[in-house]
Amino acid sequence: MHYMNDHELYMRRAISLAANVPDFPFGALIVDRDSGKILSEGWNKSSINPTFHGEIDAINQLVLSNPGIDARKLVLYTTAEPCPMCQGAILWTGIEMVVFGTSIRSLQKMGWRQIDILAEEVVRRSPAWKCTITGGVLEQECDALFAMAVSRRNDSK
After folding, report:
1. DSSP string, 75-132
2. Is residue 117 exposed (0-12), middle (13-18) or buried (19+ Cβ within 10 Å)?
3. Which candidate in 41, 55, 81, 96 is catalytic?
4. N or C: which end of the chain has fewer CB within 10 A?
């Protein structure tokens, strides 16, 4: 599992994907933990559909490009802790590891509207699934993306 040392590398890619939507900087990618290969990427497209969060976009790209893949060996990287909808979708997909930058708690403190259920709680309350959650990877860089988006929103009022 050499990829474990590469959490920052993949998070930097998630941060660069978030630049596609600077006002909603939720970027995500899915990586094969054995090979280290990036299998899919996504970013927030909620302007098209409110359910198209970055993680959902990455999952949709994954299943389109890799039908029938065994998702247990995959890692999802995302700039922010998955909301309950996204964490549920991650579990249904079978992905057993999530790495995020900014926490839901940090987003709430910055003024982002969030459902107050942490990814860990979704996993804890889903005993039929297994998923390891690692937070705080490049947290300061990810926090800065979300703080800038809030600042732009406030400046435009």
Report:
1. EEEEEEPPPHHHHHHHHHHT--EEEEEE-HHHHHHHT----S--HHHHHHT-TT---E
2. middle
3. 55
4. C
Instruction: Note if 41 is an active site residue.
Output: no
Task: With H, G, I as helix, E, B as strand and everything else as coil, classify residue 41.
Answer: strand
The tokens of 111 are what? 């003024």
What is the Cα–Cα distance from 101 to 133, expressed in whole angstroms? 11
Ordered per-residue pLDDT tens for the chain, 157 residues: 444 569 999 999 999 999 999 999 999 999 999 999 999 999 999 999 999 999 999 999 999 999 999 999 999 999 999 999 999 999 999 999 999 999 999 999 999 999 999 999 999 999 999 999 999 999 999 999 999 999 888 887 6
Distances (CA, A) of 38 to 9, 16, 63, 101: 11, 14, 13, 18
Prediction pTM value = 0.95
Q: What is the DSSP letter of 1?
A: -
